[in-house]
Amino acid sequence: MMSFYRQQLEDWLGNLDVKAYRVLDIGGAALPVKDRVKSWKVSEYDIGDNGLEDGKYDVEVDIQKKSYLNTETYNVVFCLEVMEYIYNPVLAVRNIYRFLEDDGVAYITFPFVYPVHHPVDEDCLRYTEAGIVKLLEDAGFKKWTIQYRRALTRTLEQYYKEDGMHPAKGMTHNVTGYIVTAHK
Question: How far is CA 176 from CA 69, 71, 117, in A?
Fold first, then answer.
């Protein structure tokens, strides 16, 4: 059974038309994005992975360990369900930016409230919306949209209240993650 968290991403992808010359799918070895979107008109598609998915990728890419300054560029970069495994998010988002052509677009997902999952020793970070904006600004992105992934029920907000936490007023407190579209 697919989680509601994942279903929100799949629904969003199912409405996405991808039309580009070159696309890089960072972390896409396990579940390539090209089979999950509404339409796909792409000339060159590279799956970039860190080498853990033996033989299921086109280029070895570890966005958190190496600075990709002079590299091939892409019109579109996907980095879906990867950021929780990143312990160096500043370098990672800068690298995503560097992989893009001047008018390129990046699609990145960020978890906020999500349980630790496998591989447990690689699951590192969760992100707030403010943290995401700082990462995007630092990397050089000029424009972005952030779509909320929300909890299916109000139990998250109920938990905060019953535990005596004091959430910021005027904020939505049933957010579990984010889908970001960032333009270079």
Answer: 33, 34, 15
- pLDDT beyond 90 at 88: yes
pLDDT tens-digit map of 97-109: 999 999 999 999 9
The pTM of this model reads: 0.94
User: How far is C-alpha 6 from the chain's CA centre?
Assistant: 12
**32 vs 55, 64, 74, 99, CA distance in Å?**
14, 20, 16, 18
Show Cβ contacts of residue 97 under 8 Å, excluding neighbours closer than 6 positions: 106, 139, 140, 141, 184
Helix/strand/coil percentages in the chain, nearest 5: 25, 30, 40
Fold of 4-183: Rossmann fold (3.40.50)
Instruction: Give Cα 95 to chain centroid, integer Å.
Output: 13
Q: In 3-state terms, what secondary structure has residue 32?
A: coil
